[in-house]
């Protein structure tokens, strides 16, 4: 007699298709390469979009609103009758998906199970419950934990241990250094090893199979991030997890690859035909610490020039809107409680910089001067920010996220007193970052929706 089984297929990044008894559900559906503007599939794939349009899923589950998990360009390929279940605390995202034409859009609630045919899908609490969630999936007598991007706190871990035993855990295996690359001259390189708590948590869960999940992308081929962003290789993950859990099987699932899971173990299954591998698939990450970042001027030369209206849009925002936005946001540390001089440098496609100098005092940001030469400030600089002007335009008009903007913060040597104060400052309190992202939600999806509805 055939054992009940579950087929699990990898799409890309945190995307999966689960199938059982003819019912198909999908998670974090990204059908784009690159996605999130500059995330290139690693290993390489292309998507057969016409074949994807013909797919029918009984439900789609989205773990959180970040654009590498919830993309309207990808959802646009799906049948509008597909039930879409999203974990998100912001009503705006549900309205955007409905405006795209989906007729069954549902909020997910922690610990509240959704039944889809033989599947029981239960969102579990992530460490940052205001942002993301994890998924427990039960079907065919099997129990799978999809951790997505989350870190797990002690309370949730205890709950998950009680929910065991676990047949498979999809574990986010990269500790991406999104913050460190913003200020590389002030960030220490980290050892390419798994955090101790990951090993402890996997030991507590005791899964039969562990899949290194999430990630599966690089930035543009020329990007220095590719050597500085990803400390952990697939090989390192397999070695450390294999040593810590000798009874578990570590299974790498590349895009399109499918496996059949049952009570006896794993076996290969036919791949997803609409995810087409390109080039070598047995590739791995290479980490070189901070990887000698090139100057922002060199990075900016990789981006196309802005038109006159686009450049005017950026400069008008910097001169007029930014000071008001600064007054509406608050820093998370006390570094900006005293007056500071801030220099914002915008680099064009030739690598030339326009420097805008602001006086920051309380909730006021006063533009005191601008020019191509750095010049001598009347008072010592207290903060510097560099960004390609094309990327700032993309953030304003296209919803570009911080992780792809190549912002460079405090890449300078300040006076001794400022350097002492900076030791306790947080780079995400950067004035430009605060003004762009401090009180916005869903800018990427909103820009997508505007473009899609204008077709």
Descriptive report:
The chain is an alpha/beta fold and 455 residues long. 25% of the residues lie in helices and 25% in strands. It has 2 domains: 5-277, Ribonuclease Z/Hydroxyacylglutathione hydrolase-like (Metallo-beta-lactamase, Chain A); 296-453, Nonspecific Lipid-transfer Protein, Chain A (2-Layer Sandwich). The strands form 5 sheets. The chain has an 8-stranded mixed β-sheet with strand order 8-7-6-3-2-1-17-18, with helices on one face. Strands 9-10-11-12-13-14-16 form a 7-stranded mixed β-sheet. A 5-stranded mixed β-sheet has the order 22-21-20-23-24. Helix 9 (308-328) packs across helix 10 (389-397) and helix 9 packs across helix 12 (431-437). InterPro entries: RibonucZ/Hydroxyglut_hydro. One of its GO terms (molecular function) is hydrolase activity. Keywords: Hydrolase. This is MBL fold metallo-hydrolase.
Notable traits:
eight-stranded mixed β-sheet, Metallo-beta-lactamase, Chain A, seven-stranded mixed β-sheet, 455 residues, 25% helix, alpha/beta, Nonspecific Lipid-transfer Protein, Chain A, 25% strand
Question: Layout of helices and strands, plus pairs?
Answer:
Elements: E1 5-10, E2 16-20, E3 23-27, E4 40-41, E5 45-47, H1 49-53, E6 59-62, H2 72-75, E7 84-86, H3 91-99, E8 105-107, E9 114-116, E10 119-125, E11 133-139, E12 142-146, H4 154-163, E13 168-172, H5 196-205, E14 209-213, E15 217-218, H6 225-228, H7 234-244, E16 249-250, E17 258-262, E18 265-269, E19 275-277, H8 296-300, H9 308-328, E20 340-347, E21 353-361, E22 364-371, E23 383-388, H10 389-397, E24 408-409, H11 416-422, H12 431-437, H13 443-453
Parallel strand pairs: 3-6, 6-7, 7-8, 12-13, 13-14, 14-16, 20-23
Antiparallel strand pairs: 1-2, 1-17, 2-3, 4-15, 5-19, 9-10, 10-11, 11-12, 17-18, 20-21, 21-22, 23-24
Helix pairs in contact: 9-10, 9-12
